[in-house]
């Protein structure tokens, strides 16, 4: 049976060896095995969650996200999804439809805009512009600027999102 004695410097369990400053277990902050495992598990879970959120939460504008082919479109006050001049020829930008769905606007050739769902057909991750291709950061599926599969596990092309170009702006069809 262990008893505890109290000194003015620290609490020392009988039978433990105090450090030179008189603290048991270094600084008076002993952890039993259960506390150590709980803290290690919590730290590990936190690191894992941060890594997962960083991988899945990157936007097209995030450094290292593969957003080199364009960034995010800025919707116009007129209800447009983007300005035609914001979409690089041979590239794409991310946009958000009026209903909140994530879309991609591509310009495979000057003046031709293709609207696509940004939801990967593999497991629903958000596909991002990546120079002359569209890339899913979760499992590596790659699509061309018209939404066709180039590589990766995605089983189908990206679904079309109907758009029209009017007076230098891109609108959702029917708006």
Would you write up a description of this structure?
This protein has 175 residues and is of the alpha+beta class. It folds into two domains: 10-56; 82-172, Rieske Iron-sulfur Protein. It is 14% helix and 27% strand. It is built from one helix and twelve strands. It has one helix spanning 33-56, and strands at residues 4-6, 11-13, 82-83, 91-96, 102-109, 112-117, 128-130, 133-135, 142-143, 149-151, 163-166, 169-172. Strands 7-8-9-10 form a four-stranded antiparallel β-sheet, with no helix packed on it. It is elongated. The N and C termini lie far apart (79 Å). The model is unreliable at 2-16 and 49-68 (pLDDT under 50).
Short summary:
The chain is of the alpha+beta class. It is built from 1 helix and 12 strands; from the N terminus they run E-E-H-E-E-E-E-E-E-E-E-E-E.
């Amino acid at each position: 049976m262990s008893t505890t004695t109290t000194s003015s410097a620290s609490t020392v369990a009988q039978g433990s060896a105090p450090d030179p400053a008189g603290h048991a277990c270094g600084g008076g902050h002993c952890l039993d095995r259960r506390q150590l495992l709980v803290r290690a598990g919590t730290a590990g879970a936190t690191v894992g969650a941060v890594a997962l959120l960083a991988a899945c939460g990157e936007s097209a504008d995030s450094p290292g996200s593969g957003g080199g082919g364009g960034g995010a479109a800025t919707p116009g006050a007129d209800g447009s999804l983007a300005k035609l001049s914001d979409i690089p020829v041979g590239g794409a930008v991310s946009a958000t439809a009026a209903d909140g769905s994530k879309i991609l606007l591509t310009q495979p050739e000057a003046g031709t805009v293709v609207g696509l769902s940004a939801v990967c057909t593999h497991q629903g991750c958000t596909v991002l512009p990546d120079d002359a291709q569209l890339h899913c950061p979760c499992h590596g599926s790659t699509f061309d600027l018209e939404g066709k599969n180039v590589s990766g596990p995605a089983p189908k092309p990206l679904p079309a999102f109907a758009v029209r170009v009017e007076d230098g702006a891109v609108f959702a069809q029917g708006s």
